[in-house]
Write a structure and sequence with these properties.
alpha/beta; ten-stranded mixed β-sheet; 388 residues; two-stranded antiparallel ribbon; homodimer; Peroxisomal Thiolase, Chain A, domain 1; globular; 2 domains
């Protein structure tokens, strides 16, 4: 079987964009083709498009061919759109990887795009609500901040995690995104400001939450052999792990401070890649809320269960620590345009692994992990990238 | 690389169902597990779920894990939802096939489900409109019947195809579905009744159009080796072809009577399967409108370009002819619950290739073709199944 590599990557500025869904696609597409002049739109024979709710936010229910047409791509091997809520982009990466390693496509673009910020604020809220289970959850108020507040409360009670430790995740990620010109936020934030920000769902405050963000991102995949003419030092896609143990929070886990599905997904991805958690130099993880990143340190094996709070407090997830987590700024600092997120992680890690991440470069990064989560522990998607 | 086979299949009754989205999933899941008692929900480690607009029709924006939970499946290898409008099911089949042949999953369920008929009729229409390009097409009235009417007019003008030939497709498919207890319609229809039915978009009349249908269908995939303990005579997935040459009708083709993207997709699928059009014994093709099936005969290579009208008139696409097209009744007779359609085709062909199709059995069927189309020629998805 062939091996899949990333040969080009690009993204839009993330943020509150005065741009349509199509505009975002065009911008990310141009950035991606600009990143590798050996590849033209006509060379792309596969497109896997990731988007969560364009049928609601852009009233476009068939976005994959619109994306292809907008970029001048005419896929003749593979065309698909995937939706797995916040994890959609990682799922697109996996479908692209499978098409390459089976030889079913030659050059596959994986693109994610989401227009979240529309004029009607109530509609933004409704769209996000459709991401939970309407019949059993969101209709009763169990929307994302409430879900993750339950997780934070359980983690604090069981492991003594503090609100200040949560806040330190926000400070770290907002500090990282000061070095990322594509990030939604570049102003940084102090611990005091996070701690004093508006309460959203106790103990989560405004700065414990990622923002609503517009954006798009894309990468181009090829086989190792095909890549030889296209790029000198491609980034390898080494492993994937995915799980979905339950859909509704009542069934997801008995203990809301643990995400066993993430643990399994990570183990599978490490195994496929042939590495261990200690080999990971840099990671982009799903910090939709600060508590998420803390639980993820634990389930990804960066620290023992229950020690996520001290892991951030001791600086182990920052530059100079054990693994640099969310150098892009993560969902909290860079922003979280749902369908684009998993692809934007791949873009950041492509830059990091090739030493092109500028002031936020993680020194000598060789192995990288990306994690997206759909719902609270509902689906977990882990990808491992690396230099070989 | 491994070879992928189908080891189980099931579907709901298609029609105007007094059932929710979740009910349809449960019903198709039960039918599928009932079809092969060697497989239990706990054995399934991958789910690819196909659905077009549950976020609009069922207000469920994250349907894949809901489907898994409803059936008691806990995927630990692969979880995804795909959307490619009317072609979604075939795309799910392809992702499932890739997961099996790469060894990334052991047993993958590909399920499609769609709840189309909701109480508010205007909303059904709006949902369908989101499947075209809102900015350039549907907002100006270029909805599906209008698009396919343009195709029919062009085909009639260029090749002399008649309204009666179109009507014969409806008669054939409604006759076929009389033998299909899962079909939306079982009453049959006469040529006179089709010809005298209400004009929808000239020359297409009511019976030239497929209905709005609720339904769900599923298959389970395994590798050839894994299947040995599960089933004696599995059905092989032999080839796929997919294209998307343009999104908007203005760009799809210069001549609306031709669908060059389908021709290319079919050629790729035949090549991967190592067969020719003449080898196909039975086909489920995308007869969303009668004209579609006529153009498909041509682009799939069952007859020469322009001869689709006489192909149906001479009975060549019926029992006793050259290839039995849409023995299930097709979209016109069986119904077209968008996300479920490509999977329901696989279910029908699984039955046909194993000699289990009862009164609608195509004798000695060895090679089968399935085709779904998203938009009018926007995306084409061809799959080849067979006995080896």
């Amino acid at each position: 079987m062939k091996r899949a590599v990333i040969v080009a990557a690009g993204m839009t500025k993330f943020g509150e964009r005065e741009a349509t869904f199509r505009d975002l696609i065009a911008e990310a597409g141009k950035a991606t083709f600009d990143s590798n002049k050996h590849i033209l739109p006509k060379d792309i024979d596969g497109l896997v498009f990731s988007s969560v709710y364009p049928e609601r936010s852009a009233f476009q229910g068939h976005p994959a061919p619109i994306a292809a047409e907008t970029m001048g791509i005419k896929p003749t091997s593979l065309i698909a759109r995937v939706e797995c809520q916040c994890g959609s982009g990682t799922v697109a990466m996996r479908m692209g990887q499978m098409a390459i390693i089976t030889g079913q496509a030659d050059l596959v673009m994986c693109m994610g795009a989401e227009k979240v910020l529309i004029p009607v604020h109530e509609e933004i809220f409704l769209n996000a609500m459709a991401g939970g289970d309407r019949e059993w959850e969101t209709c009763f108020g169990l929307v994302p901040p409430a879900m993750f507040a339950l997780c934070a409360q359980a983690h604090m009670q069981k492991y003594g995690t503090t609100e200040e430790q949560l806040a330190r995740v926000a400070v770290k990620n907002h500090t990282h995104s000061m070095n990322n010109p594509n990030a939604h936020f570049q102003k940084g934030v102090t611990l005091e400001k996070v701690m004093n920000s508006k309460l959203i769902a106790s103990p989560l405050k405004l700065f414990d939450c990622c923002p609503n963000t517009d954006g798009a991102a894309a990468v181009i995949l090829a086989s190792e052999e095909r890549a030889k003419d296209l790029i000198k030092d491609p980034v390898y896609i080494l492993g994937f792990g995915q799980t979905s143990l339950a859909a509704t929070l009542a069934n997801v886990e008995k203990d809301w401070s643990s995400w066993p599905g993430l643990k399994i997904a990570a183990e599978h991805a490490y195994k496929m890649a042939g590495i261990t958690p200690g080999d990971v130099d840099v990671a982009e993880v799903h910090d939709c809320f600060t508590i998420s990143e803390i639980v993820e340190y634990e389930e990804l094996g960066f620290c023992k269960k229950g020690e996520g709070g001290s892991f951030i407090e001791e600086g182990k997830s920052d530059y100079g620590g054990e693994v640099v987590v969310n150098p892009s700024g993560g969902r909290i600092g860079m922003g979280h345009p749902f369908g684009a997120t998993g692809i934007a992680q791949a873009v950041e890690l492509f830059w990091q692994l090739r030493g092109k991440a500028g002031p936020r470069q993680v020194k000598d990064a060789r192995f990288a992990l990306a994690h997206t989560m759909s719902g609270m522990g509902v689906e977990n998607h882990v990808a491992i990238y690396g230099r070989v």
